[in-house]
Design a protein that fits this description.
By secondary structure, the chain is of the alpha/beta class. It contains seven helices and seven strands, in the order H-E-H-E-E-H-E-H-H-E-H-E-H-E. A seven-stranded mixed sheet has the order 2-1-7-3-6-5-4, sandwiched between helices. Helix 1 packs across helix 3. It is globular.
C-alpha cells in the first residue's frame, strides 16, 4: 500500500491510544452527567420507557446506545462531551471518529472518516484502508454541530449515514442545539436515546 498506513490491528491500537491521549488534553469543563431529554417529540417519546429514570447519569452511558442524540444550548459542553466520549470509547476498544457536520456534502462520508483518522494518526491512510474502518463493528461516529448546519447539509449527512447503515449497523452519537434537527440530520430517527446536558463539573 503505497503512500499510507494500512488499517491493521496495530494501526487501530495506535489510533485508539492517540485518541485517548488527545481526550486527556481537553481543558476547561468536562461534562459529567446527562439526563434523558424531557421535551422529546412524541414519536421519540414512544420509544422510551416512561418509567425510565430521569436522574442524571454518567456521560459514559451514551456509549451503551447504538444511536444517541446529545442536545444542549451553546456553551453547555456538547463538543467537549464528544471529545471525552471519543477517549472513553477508544479505551473500551472502539474506533471513534469525531467530525463536524459543517462542510459535509453528499457522498463524502468515507473521506470525512479518513480525514478524521488522519488528523489523529498523521500519516495518510490509503484509499482501501478506510473501507476496513467503515466495515469494522467497533466503529463509532461522533458528529458535532448537526442542528447548526443548513437543511441541505443535514440532508446530505442523513443520506450518507443511511447508505452506510444499509450495509451494516453503525453506532452514531450526534450533538446539536436543536433535537429534531439533530435527529433528522444524523439519521437517528428509529432507535435514538435522547440525552440533554445536565451539568458541567470542573476537572
Amino acid at each position: 500500500l503505497h503512500g499510507g498506513v494500512a488499517w491493521s490491528q496495530d494501526t487501530a491500537a495506535a489510533y485508539r491510544a492517540a485518541v485517548a491521549a488527545d481526550s486527556c488534553q481537553v481543558s476547561g469543563l468536562v461534562p459529567m452527567n446527562v439526563v434523558s431529554a424531557a421535551a422529546a417529540p412524541s414519536v421519540l417519546r414512544l420509544m422510551h420507557d416512561p418509567d425510565r429514570s430521569r436522574e442524571p447519569q454518567s456521560l459514559d452511558a451514551v456509549l451503551r446506545e447504538q444511536a444517541a442524540a446529545l442536545v444542549g444550548a451553546t456553551g453547555e459542553g456538547k463538543s467537549t462531551a464528544l471529545t471525552y466520549l471519543a477517549g472513553i470509547a477508544a479505551q473500551r476498544g472502539l474506533v471513534p471518529v469525531l467530525f463536524e457536520a459543517a462542510g459535509h456534502t453528499a457522498g463524502t462520508l468515507q473521506r470525512r472518516v479518513r480525514h478524521g483518522i488522519e488528523a489523529v494518526l498523521k500519516p495518510p491512510l490509503p484509499a482501501g484502508a478506510v473501507q476496513h474502518v467503515l466495515a469494522a463493528p467497533e466503529l463509532l461516529l461522533l458528529i458535532d454541530g448537526v442542528s447548526e448546519v443548513s437543511a441541505g447539509t443535514r440532508a446530505s449527512l442523513d443520506a450518507d449515514l443511511r447508505q452506510c447503515a444499509a450495509q451494516r449497523p453503525v453506532q452514531v452519537s450526534a450533538a446539536g442545539r436543536d433535537l429534531p434537527r439533530t435527529i433528522v440530520g444524523a439519521a437517528l430517527a428509529e432507535i435514538t436515546a435522547v440525552c440533554r446536558m445536565a451539568k458541567l463539573d470542573h476537572n
